[in-house]
Amino acid sequence: MPAPDPTPDTTPVAPAVSPPDPGRWVDDHGDYLFRFALARLRDESRAEDAVQETFLAGLKGGRTFAGRSAERTWLTGILKNKIYDHFRKASRERSFTDLEFYSGEEEDGFNHDGPAAGAWTPDRSPGEWDDPGAGLDQEVFWRAYRGCADKLPRNISAVFQLREVDGLESREVCALLQISEANLWVMLHRARMALRHCLEVNWFDKTR
Amino acid sequence: MTFWKKLWSGCADLSLDCRQASRAQSDALEGPLPASKRTGLWIHLRLCALCRRYGRQLQFLHRAAHDHAESLTDPAPGGLDPAARERMKKQLRERPPE
């Protein structure tokens, strides 16, 4: 009678995933997460702290992933919450309201007196955008968009990112930043106007 | 005043101007407008091609930001400087056991 096979059957039933190696996480995702945090927090040392906290929280979570992309999405989710925690704390120390940006009569793009008061000024009226959707596949378009978004002052930018990019509800944004809903809407309106105008000048109609 | 003149005059009173309409179109992205604003905006948009155009562009940018959030993070190389990177790895490896 043949001897029983001494080695146990080690055929895996699912792909083996090892626990996360923090060094690999830093190499794979550190730069991306740092750039993400820096765009939101606009401060290198805070951005580094947020990324560090994200990795620590991620390691405690003990999850493993089959792919880098899923890993990054999950880590970005944790990072966003760290960023929100930062805003929550910061809003107790300083105001996130900005009613100055784009408030001037000379800059908002409308006539403020005369018979055409309330109408677009001729040089600032919206131009025709030829096939805007085509830009969505082009990195140069996104570079222009990012450039315009980066020009927004800090508080306006925070409001824009939380509401437009992250899609938080108005009341969540208000709670996070301790701003009134009325002021939120003013800030969003001005962010949108500034962004639209900037993109028109820098992308859709360079000849203007 | 005839009925029609009164109606026209009433519409003109309700109608927003372009400045107000641009604000209303932004607010409309946040939630339902109050009835008078909604009517005033509707009237203005019937008459003003520029504001209709503004509204389309606003919608486009609103959706682009939300649907392509990952494109809004700069993919250019660079990020943590080497010292920061090493610092982070060290701190993570030396973290206290759970």
- Measured between the Cα atoms of the first and last residue of chain A, the distance is 91 Å
Q: What fraction of residues of chain A sit in β-strands?
A: under 5%
Mean pLDDT over the full residue set of chain B: 89
Number of E-type strands of chain A: 0
Order of helices and strands of chain A: HHHHHHH
Taking the sheet with the most strands of chain B, its summary is: none
Tally of helical segments of chain A = 7
Output the radius of gyration of chain A: 24 Å
What structural category characterises the helix and strand content of chain B?
mainly alpha
How many strands, which pairing sense, and closed or not: the largest β-sheet of chain A? none
Provide the low-confidence segments of chain A as ranges: 12-17
Which percent range fits the helix content of chain A? 55-70%
Structural class of chain A: mainly alpha
In terms of quaternary structure, the protein is heterodimer
- Gap from first CA to last CA of chain B: 82 Å
Question: What's the overall geometry of chain A?
Answer: globular
Unreliable stretches of chain B (pLDDT < 50, length at least 5) are none
Largest interface: A-B, 53 and 42 residues
Can you give a write-up of this model?
The complex is a heterodimer of chains A (208) and B (98). Chain A is globular, with a radius of gyration of 24 Å. Helix content of chain A is 58%, strand content 0%. Chain A has helices at 22-41, 44-61, 68-93, 139-150, 154-165, 170-177, 181-204. Among the domains of chain A are: 22-93; 133-204, Winged helix-like DNA-binding domain superfamily/Winged helix DNA-binding domain (Arc Repressor Mutant, subunit A, Orthogonal Bundle). By secondary structure, chain A is mainly alpha-helical. By secondary structure, chain B is an all-alpha fold. Chain B has a domain at 1-67. Chain B has five helices and no strands. The longest helix of chain B is centred in the middle third of the chain and has 19 residues, at 49-67. The model of chain B has no long low-confidence stretch (mean pLDDT 89). The chains are: A mainly alpha (208), B mainly alpha (98). At the A-B interface, helix 1, helix 2, helix 4, helix 5 and helix 7 of A face helix 2, helix 4 and helix 5 of B.
